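Q: Could you write out the predicted structure for this multi-component system? I'm mainly interested in how the pieces pack against one another.
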Amino acid sequence: MDLLAQYVMNGVMLGLMYALVALGFTLFFGVLDVVQFAHGDVVTAGAFAGLATYAGLVLAGVESAVPQLVLVVIAATLSMAVLGAVLGRVLVLPLKGAPPLNVLLATLMGGTALRECIRLFYPGGSQPQRFPALLPSASWSMGHFTLRLDNVLMIVAGGVLVLGLSLVLRRTRLGLEIRAVAQDEETARTMGIDFRRVVLLTFAIGSALAAFAGVMHGLYYNEINFGSGLLLGVIGFSAAVLGGLGSFGGAVLGGFLFAGLQTLGAVALPFASAYKDVFAFTVVILLMTWKPTGLIGEQLGERV
Amino acid sequence: MYRKIAFLRVALFALALALALPAAAKETVKLAFIGPLTGGNSAIGLGGRNSAELAVKLRNADPKSKYQYDLVVLDDECKPDTGVQVATKAGADRSIAAGVTHYCSVVAVATVDTFHRLGLPTIVWGAVLPDITYGHSYKEIHRVNGTMINQNETAAKLMLKQGYRRWVVIHDTTDYGKGHNKYFTQYATGGGGKILGTFGVTADQQDFTAELTQAKALNPEVIFFGGLTPIGVRIRAQMDKLGINAQFQGTSGIVNDDFIKALGPLAEGVVAFREGAPAEKLPGGKFFLEKYAEQKYPNPPEAYGPFAYAAASLLMDTIDKVGPDRKKIITALAGVKNVDSITGPITFDDHGQNTVAAITAYVVQDGKWVVWEDSEYASGKRKLKGR
């Protein structure tokens, strides 16, 4: 029982990170029908932006964990929001109308460039970097289960963020505009919606989510490296596709489902756990052949 | 003017003759040195070359030596294709009697066929992959430095001596990690230890919580990790997150400063093992370092310099005994048993592998890798986990 609780806890933490990344993919696909493959590297860049902020704060003499944490999160999300909008402006919007393959390639290359820049220009960037533990580390142990306060806080914060975003999409004017663009770009334009602004804002929001996932990744593992986002990007994308690209709930469901599959693969398979990703991705492929449009169909725009 | 030049010529000729005469009294024998002299591993390659050259210089200065030795230096660039080219060059040159060869495992394993085909006796001075000596039955190939087999034998012995009996093994699924799993398991169970569980993980895996949760339930005393720094860092950090209070034991792949930098205080007390030893810890280390310093080389001997020195010395000892005949050298090397060298005794088994090679245990103490014997953990001032 205690073991099961620990697996569930591990899975929830993973699932939340996957869901946050998957939401970005779903938002971008929703408004522009594109797959932004630099998204995983934006996660890494967000984590490194947070780490750099932390280093700066330590140099500036800010010693207390609470302002450190708040400033790290703010700096990471804001800088990635800007980076996301720039990527959207430079790599995606100019290719609007071109075959989707071009956008895919452009962003894939952009992501590689971003990743290599982190490796080359961040001091010691080719080696794993220690990410500070800024959350309280209190924990309670029951048998094999260890409940950590920092994990609980991260789950609460991530959950609030996901719910908040869902509220923004459903209840605000910006959300309405995003959904309108997702549903029908032409009509939205004729209704006086500034298409470019909505697209760039969506890219900013999605990338800020990625930055949050990156910082969470750093806080959870206390270690980041230039390649952290690579697999996260692939998994986030798979999760989004699994749930149904363009569907808000689908991305969240896909993220948790993928984490569950990975955990199950590592625990239940009798042979080496090295095959857990093989197992998880195989199940995803099977699920996709069963439901090609994802477990939850597209909702953001409800297009045909 | 013309006469002046003619005189100079005669004088120079006489001088050259005078210098050459004592050398000409001895037959000249050529040895090849092959290592990475350019590229990312060149620091170690140049240290090895200087050390082999030092051995040759000291020998030539010794009046008791039967031959005058000449070192032919070749660059393998740490690339298998270049390695095979220079190996062919050395092997095909019949005036070369033997070779001190390779630091990079990929190169060393690629050239064994070449040396075998051309019949050149070689002693590997730095590459650690077991297959370089154990992957074939060629009599030409020898190695003075240890492999992961020796490393794990020493590792298992030391940990068993600390009283540890129950391990969980986590290894990456590359040849490096799989080899460590195989040999550590062999020596740990052979010595009365128990492997409670073995987890193979991919070399770029990020999340180990599922594996570690299972490991925790098995309640091991030690988590053995066979792999490189990046995932070693992650596993150690995530052990802490899951409240696993077992000792962490690694292999040569984590013995570097980046491991400590990435973990901070969590690295304290981590134990790991590496082939070779710091020069000053070797039996003949003091002598070697003094002589090396006298030559004023621009770069240090690095970790494997003493082994290049020992390999070159062993070859010259052998040639002094049996003459510069490749076949006779091979026969003589097969019988090397408990021969003294600056790296300790050398005994070749039937694969030409030194079975008593130096292995060093390290422990992280106050943010530094400290040789086990010098650490406060060995003296009992600090304790490993669970001791």
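A: Regarding packing and overall arrangement: Chain B has a mean pLDDT of 91.
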